[in-house]
Amino acid sequence: MSDTHARQATPVVAATGGRRRLLVGGSVALASLGLMASALAAPAQAATTPRPIATGWLPYWTSDASISSFAANADLFADVSPFWHDTERGASPGQIVMVNHLGAAERASRLAVLRRSGKPIIPSITDGTGKGWMSNALSTPAGRSRHALQIVSLVMANGYDGIDLDYEQFAYADSQSSWTTTRGRWAAFVAELSGALHARGKLLTAALPTTDYWVYDFAAMGRYLDRARVMTYDYSFDSPGPIAPLPWVLSQTDAALKYIPRSKLFMGVPTYGRDWVVRDGNGNPVVTRANGTKGSLADCPAGYSTKKKEVSARDTIAYAAAVGATPRRTATSREITFQYAKRYSAGGRTCSILREVWGADALTVAERTRALLAKGVAGIALWTVGGEDQGQWADLRKQAWARTPIYQPVISFAAPRTAKRGVPARFVAVVRAGGRPLAASPVTLQFKAAGSPHWATVKTSPTGPKGSVVFNILLNRSGDFRIAVPAGPGHTSRVTGAHTVTYLPR
Fold first, then answer.
1. Residues 33-42: pLDDT tens digits?
2. pTM of the predicted structure, to 2 decimals
3. Given 3.30.200.20, 2.60.40.730, 1.10.287.3510, 1.10.3720.10, which CATH number is that of 13-47+406-504?
4. CB of 383 within 8 A of CB of 233?
């Protein structure tokens, strides 16, 4: 590689019959006006895509928004998991029934859209069987094989790139006393399913609770899964508090890394928040009467609500403005929080119920991503894609590029040995970076006359989809030619050696 920078010669152009005559080192070369214009307008494009630092889930109930968000930022994703499938109890104990959230035609249509990203599509299966059912279904080799075959058949019939297991009943429905038994059944099932999918060139991923839920045998997951996605969110669920306080997320990351290779580990990042009713020390909602005194729910008209609500990261700041609250960012959890009084008035009764919101915005996601990538994990797992503050993507893309390998371009340069008067000399360059064609990148053909120390630009054109560019140049003087490629995202600059072309006037 050469670090020599070519001196840009000032071109002298004169109109001539719809073409421009470009004087180069005292010789005349003809260039099509149309070609020159397209070269100048062509945008530079990255030699490689950014390192994929994200994965995530696309809920079926937000399909359009989620798919749109993923499609716009697919370059940042290793894969994506639409929420399309569920399991339910069958008629007999241990029987599993597969359920589709969307019809076949709708799934096929959405799959076709997702396929345009070029990224693996790995739909999720959730466990909707309830307490103890799935553990019982996986209790025998025959039961494990039967369920594994169901999943493999689903993957193959739909042309998926794999499957994502979101089986949470073991953790949140089954009693902890069952974990010792279930742990072995689950590990054996994952091992069998992994082998069956891998034999068909398919991937297996899973959404996992934190390592406190040892029923999932994290060491086995590290061996058999292609991706492990740890759900580091819902830290506060029933009462107000941070969704995913950053110190807790990082400690859970350290715990997961004891079992799961960094290259497989994606840590959960929420793109949502919650709105809770604030309760006093006795568990009662904090209520204020119309006169400002302390009250109770008995002072409220019909229609009041004490239910928690979900707030998307996309709407967190606007939500605060709508309720007249001033959001603040906590120093420790690095989340957005605020309180407001929800007023109810009807039938001569008025009350206000105090509510508290915790959630995320673009900075929340960006900070978590930066801290997690510093731990060396493969990336983040977004719940959900589509609910995020769109401002996060610019920062995430910067982080991805900062961790993208920098490649030195490989340039193949073909030049003629001689050039005849009136016959265009053909120069061909093919540029690759990171083993892939460098498409839509500016490439410059440079000329140096014999005895001159300076290189001058003849012409600059963008490479095509296969990384190639062709220059057809009329010469009237011998000299050296070379190809120069400027640095771009993911690749360094590069200059070829000189090729001498001898001009033959006759």
1. 222 222 222 3
2. 0.76
3. 2.60.40.730
4. yes
